[in-house]
């Protein structure tokens, strides 16, 4: 049985393993820098936010950054307060919406998929393109 290096399951050797392991980048480094500035995040809060957006849980974030889980929780609480959100999904969506405003390192603007909200018996489609 071969060993697969899955950053979401296996313990990382160091923080850089997470930055380089993803095959898909939704938010590039330039946009992460802008996000950090926009929300006045510390370097560590930005690192925690990036790992959250990659799907890591608190335990794996703590291991990747060599900090305690309680410290991760404190960073997350501070991030939520800065962004005025209640959970990881709302945080991720706020980052995506903010990052979509800027041209990335590849010279392209981030394309947002249509997000569909279901309310009662009807649904409302939202998209940055539809709002224009």
Shape: globular
Q: Helix segment count?
A: 6
Report the CATH topology name of the domain at 15-104: Arc Repressor Mutant, subunit A
| Biggest sheet descriptor | 2 strands, antiparallel
Descriptive key words:
2 strands; Arc Repressor Mutant, subunit A; two-stranded antiparallel sheet; disordered N terminus; disordered C terminus; 132 residues; mainly alpha; 6 helices
Structure description:
With 132 residues, the chain is mostly helical. It has a two-stranded antiparallel ribbon. Strand 1 (115-119) and strand 2 form a beta hairpin. Helix content is 48%, strand content 8%. The radius of gyration is 16 Å and the shape is globular. The protein starts with 14 loop residues before the first helix and ends in a 6-residue tail after the last strand. It contains six helices and two strands, in the order ααααααββ. It has a domain at 15-104: Winged helix-like DNA-binding domain superfamily/Winged helix DNA-binding domain (Arc Repressor Mutant, subunit A).
Structure described in brief:
The chain is mainly alpha-helical and 132 residues long.
Per-chain topology:
Layout: H1 15-21, H2 29-38, H3 43-53, H4 58-65, H5 69-83, H6 88-99, E1 115-119, E2 122-126
Antiparallel strand pairs: 1-2
Helix pairs in contact: 3-5, 4-5
């Amino acid at each position: 049985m071969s060993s697969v290096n899955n950053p979401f399951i296996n313990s990382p050797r160091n923080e850089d393993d997470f930055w380089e392991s993803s095959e898909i980048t939704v938010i590039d480094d330039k946009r992460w820098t802008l996000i950090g500035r926009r929300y006045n995040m510390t370097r560590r809060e930005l690192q925690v936010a990036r790992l959250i957006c990659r799907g890591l849980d608190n335990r794996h974030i703590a291991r990747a950054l060599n900090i305690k889980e309680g410290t991760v929780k404190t960073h997350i609480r501070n991030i939520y307060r800065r962004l005025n959100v209640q959970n990881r999904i709302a945080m991720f969506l706020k980052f995506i919406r903010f990052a979509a405003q800027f041209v990335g390192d590849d010279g392209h603007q981030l394309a947002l998929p249509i997000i569909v909200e279901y309310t009662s018996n009807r649904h409302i489609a939202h998209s940055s393109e539809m709002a224009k």
